[in-house]
Amino acid sequence: MANWHYMVNDEENGPVSESELLQLKQGGIINENTQVRQENGDNWDTLISSLDLPAPQTLSAKAGGDEDCALCNKHLPSSEMMQYEGKWICADCKPQFEIRLKEGDNLEIDDYTIASIGKRFGAIVIDGLVFLVLNLITSAITVALASSTGKGIIVAQVVNMLGSFVLPLIYEVVFIGLKGATPGKMAMGVKVISTDGEPVSMLKSLGRYFAKMISGLILMIGYIMAFSDKKKQALHDKMCNTLVVLSK
């Protein structure tokens, strides 16, 4: 099957296969009057003439439901979005999506697999065991320092603060900011990414850590939300635009 080149905003793009060309039309990137040519040809013609497509018909307006944008995960009416290969793209992400097409992106939007609740729970258990060991170590340090300095209460308070707040913060923020996963997540083969597929920055990792506190404030409802969410996002994931996915 022949490959095709097509014009968008006076720029030549391609080559793409005939099926990809039709998908671009379906997604609204090109239309029946877009100029196209075969890869080994020099003659440009409209898409409708080149592929012998049926004349476009006037479609009646039809109310649609809400959909999630495959790039930014915003939940919007489908009437305000474009569709490509079964995926929905919002108006804000359309320019970025068109750039990806021009740059020869493989057009795989969701090139990841959402991690199951079971794997996420397993990661929490493993990280919990890591913290148990850390707490035993800090308790031993507390006893040793208290007996040697004679200031047991002050030392206990300082070490308790480190073990209860500072160490967990550093543990999660640094591991997710640098590796995308804590040791527990690594052991379960999952990682945290942004909804656009990019790695999580250190700043976003910090924000996600505090957002997790909000998820647990009211009877863990923020965590329970993940059970019914299509992409298994808890409240803190939605707040920070993150996903927990399988590692590759």
Task: Summarize, please.
By secondary structure, this protein is an alpha+beta fold. It has 2 domains: 91 residues, Dna Ligase, domain 1, CATH 3.30.1490; 130 residues, no CATH class.
Task: Walk me through what this model shows.
With 248 residues, the chain is α+β, with helices and mostly antiparallel strands. It has two domains: 91 residues, Dna Ligase, domain 1, CATH 3.30.1490; 130 residues, no CATH class. Helices cover 47% and strands 17% of the residues. The strands form four sheets. A four-stranded antiparallel beta sheet has the order 2-1-3-4. Helix 5 crosses helix 7. The protein is elongated and about 90 Å long. 23% of the residues are buried.
Which helices and strands appear, and what pairs or packs with what?
Elements: E1 3-8, E2 11-17, H1 18-26, E3 35-38, E4 45-46, H2 47-50, E5 66-68, E6 75-77, E7 81-84, E8 87-90, H3 94-102, H4 117-149, H5 152-179, H6 183-188, E9 190-194, H7 202-215, H8 221-228, H9 235-240, E10 242-246
Antiparallel strand pairs: 1-2, 1-3, 3-4, 5-6, 7-8, 9-10
Helix pairs in contact: 4-5, 5-7
Q: Could you list the spans in which at least 5 consecutive residues all have pLDDT below 50?
A: 55-63
Arithmetic mean pLDDT: 80
| Overall SS class | alpha+beta
Question: What is the beta-strand fraction?
Answer: 15-25%
Helical stretch tally: 9
Radius of gyration: 26 Å
Biggest beta sheet attributes: 4 strands, antiparallel
Oligomer: single chain
Features:
two-stranded antiparallel ribbon, 10 strands, Dna Ligase, domain 1, alpha+beta, 248 residues
